[in-house]
AraC family transcriptional regulator
Amino acid sequence: MKKESPYHYSEFTDPISCDFTTSNMAGNVDFHMHNSHEIYLLVDGHIQYFVENACYDMSPGSLILFSNREIHKAINTSNEPFTRLVIHVNPTYIRPYCTPLTNLLDCFHRDPGKNNLVLLSQTDHELLISMAKNLEKAIKNRRPYGSDLTALTTIIQILILINQAWQNTGSVKTAPRPHRAQAIMNYIDDHLTEPLTLDSISLALSLDKYYLSHLFKSETESSIFQYIVVKRVALAKELLFKGHTVSEACHLSGFVDYSNFIRTFRQTTGCTPGQFKRLNP
């Protein structure tokens, strides 16, 4: 079960979710983030996936991971239907089952936008699909005896498989591809806490602002403003998690107006900064 917001944020209220979906467009059309970690397997079709400022070309069998700190969005350049498996996991639900030798959340504890893509062997791919179908069934059929434990033990097995594959995946083989908006994103990321306008970015990059805006939109199917807003909220989340006050997080993440920060944070994350801080002591 999830709730949508104006910034296409999905707040998953259940500890885990698992769905196979086929459509010709992604569920979220803009850069967004979740309160959960996400496992995304492309079953068939071809899409591009942006994570932070990186872009990955995905083909059937491609597995990509997103932590609850990473902004991301899918782009279907072909407009043909594509099928994907999407699993969301609330880290607070899984954390009690981690051990000193087996951190089930290890594959999500990365620098944002780094080493997101995972290579699966054919055997692991088939096993993941099989386990995901069992997980989906257990989540949807909550009343039958044992369905809760089946869901729990299955997601643990899935996380073990994915972490093993992630550890065995070389970063060279899964490197993101260059894209035309890279320089714009890099500049925004490097100057995120400073005043940013279309004029200031175009001046710094020596590009006409209308060309700049069109280039970013044509490459990412989102606006520069939307990217900046979600990146600043992601930074604010990180600052709050590290112990900063709401006021400090506001100013250190590049927001000037406090009221606008509160409103935007809630629209983008599903909760106020104060609520987020209380939930992540």
